[in-house]
Specification:
This protein is an alpha+beta fold. The protein has three domains: about 100 residues, Serine Threonine Protein Phosphatase 5, Tetratricopeptide repeat (Alpha Horseshoe); about 70 residues; about 60 residues, SH3 type barrels (Roll). Helices cover about 60% and strands about 15% of the residues. It contains nine helices and seven strands; from the N terminus they run H-H-H-H-H-H-H-H-H-E-E-E-E-E-E-E. It has a five-stranded antiparallel β-sheet. A two-stranded antiparallel sheet has the order 2-3. Helix 4 packs antiparallel against helix 5 and helix 5 packs antiparallel against helix 6. The protein is globular. The protein starts with a helix and ends with a strand. About 5% of the residues have low confidence.
Length: about 250
Amino acid sequence: MQTIQKILILLVFSVLCVKSSATTKGEADALYEKEKYTEAAQAYEALLKTEGVAAEVYYNLGNCYYKLDQIPLAVLNYERAFLLNPGDADIRANLALARGKTIDKAVPPSEMFFVTWWRDMTHCMSLNGWMVLGVTAFVLMLVGLLLYMFMSQLTLRKFGFYGAVAMLVLTIVANLAALSQHADLTQRSTAIIMTPSVTVKSSPSETSTDLFLIHEGTKVEILDTIKNWMEVQFEEGKQGWVPVNTLEVI
């Protein structure tokens, strides 16, 4: 019995020690405000490990690395923040600022206007935002149907019918946008080049043909993985193979 009590006491003591040593966001923010960017970055990294991912923490971490002129890490963390909260204007602005400091300036291939429109629209809110909108629209659709079915006045019936149709469309759009964002969050098919420069190969081998050179901070889409190599595609459409240790998945 005494042995069990000692074990319980040790467990409680250990939990209290962990909690007391854990970094809080307020402490990390205070370090950033004091311009202790290295210490603040370490604090934000620890916070992500203990508290889980959060757009605001990734954003602040990106700010630290930007101040430290570690542009690849700044881009990586801004991209992770954008993935969680694409509608945030500050995240968008700082990501564009960090990208502007990278060497490779990719020109995306032309695409149909509705593809661009749909991507921009799905990025105007976070996943949670689209989910809330979808549920709200669905409830309003039911209210509209009730008005149409049970109201005697023609005006209210028309309002209920057309309102229900509009809310049905909004429900569908919100759910499709939420599914699109959920796929981005779960698939994680993009990465950032982290080494100063890397030679893109024609096949997953050091002896294969050199295609071109890319530099740190460049965003790529992952197409395939074979052992220690990844096949990637760049925003302008070019493809090739790079070693896995030269990039970090967003």
